[in-house]
Design brief:
The complex is a heterodimer. By secondary structure, chain A is an all-beta fold. Chain A is built from no helices and eleven strands. Chain B contains no helices and eleven strands. The N and C termini of chain B lie far apart (about 40 Å). Classes of the chains: A mainly beta, B mainly beta. At the A-B interface, strand 4, strand 5 and strand 10 of A face strand 5 and strand 9 of B.
């Protein structure tokens, strides 16, 4: 089955700890995206990558980091510098240039206390 | 700041009725428009895309686009309780290297009452 997987589904961390969220896709999509969703806020773009070994900051990149070493994988690290890390994190992907439909993984719900 | 606006709802309709969801966008050069359905606690699921002015039908769903008015809507005919969800409108950013990126509205919560 082709699709996007995110793990874990739920993640609990103590304040001050870095945490890495996994996103893997086997759709052969070129572009991958990380969003954050808070109640009443809609989806906000954190980082995106259009090709391997390249990525760009989105609208709310502060306190986050990413890597794109393989086409299939786009992990997101939530660092201790992120002031309000508790949120629902969504990974998405799309094919290359000329297509705009994005498809989402199931999400990771991160709680930091 | 480019924006996508939606009425947050909740929009409540009886089972079997037509639900009408609306969205306006600010970027005149946007070319691609999407509707996503998001059930509570789940991730968004793409249900409709539209690129040209007019109507596009897919089963019980009809997307309508009016670029002159910068307005896109989603009609759900014969609404079912299983349609109860939050509906997100998304529009592509119409410029530069981020042209493939989407801007999302905050969503409209739809409740279909049996």
């Amino acid at each position: 089955d082709g699709g996007i997987t995110q793990s874990p589904k739920y993640l609990f961390r103590k304040e001050g700890q870095n945490v890495t969220l996994s996103c893997e896709q086997n759709l052969n999509h070129d572009a991958m995206y990380w969003y954050r969703q808070d109640p009443g806020q809609g989806l906000r773009l954190i980082y995106y990558s259009q090709i391997v070994n390249d990525f760009q900051k989105g609208d709310i990149a502060e306190g986050y980091s990413v890597s794109r070493e393989k086409k299939e994988s786009f992990p997101l690290t939530v660092t201790s510098a992120q002031k309000n890390p508790t949120a629902f994190y969504l990974c998405a992907s799309k094919t290359g240039q000329g297509a705009y439909e994005q498809y989402f993984g199931p999400g990771t719900r991160l709680t930091v206390t | 700041q480019k924006e996508v606006e939606q009425n947050s709802g909740p929009l409540s309709v009886p089972e079997g009725a037509i639900a009408s969801l609306n969205c306006t966008y600010s970027d005149r050069v946007s070319q691609s428009f999407f509707w996503y359905r998001q059930y509570s606690g789940k991730s968004p699921e793409l249900i409709m895309s539209i690129y040209s002015n007019g109507d596009k039908e897919d089963g019980r769903f009809t997307a309508q686009l009016n670029k002159a008015s910068q307005y896109v809507s989603l009609l759900i005919r014969d609404s079912q309780p299983s349609d109860s969800a939050t509906y997100l409108c998304a529009v592509n950013r119409g410029y530069g290297g981020s042209q493939g990126n989407l801007i999302f509205g905050k969503g409209t919560k739809l409740s279909v009452k049996p």
